[in-house]
Amino acid sequence: xxxxxxxxxxxxxxxxxxxxxxxxxxxxxxxxxxxxxxxxxxxxxxxxxxxxxxxxxxxxxxxxxxxxxxx
Length: 71
Fold this sequence. Notes:
Blueprint: E1 2-7, E2 21-24, E3 32-37, H1 42-54, E4 58-64
Antiparallel strand pairs: 1-3, 1-4, 2-3
């Protein structure tokens, strides 16, 4: 699971059409968006970053989160 902060808001960008992601606006930077997504491996993470780039978004921060499975 990863947290990825991107510059800008995702209004009108159909990110959910491509990856399963949770979006939120951080309280400390209203002009950015924090995405949380689970990826299978490093290749999938590279694909997510490439997709964000292709959609015109700039990744400003990224870090791994503890992967908590829900049942």
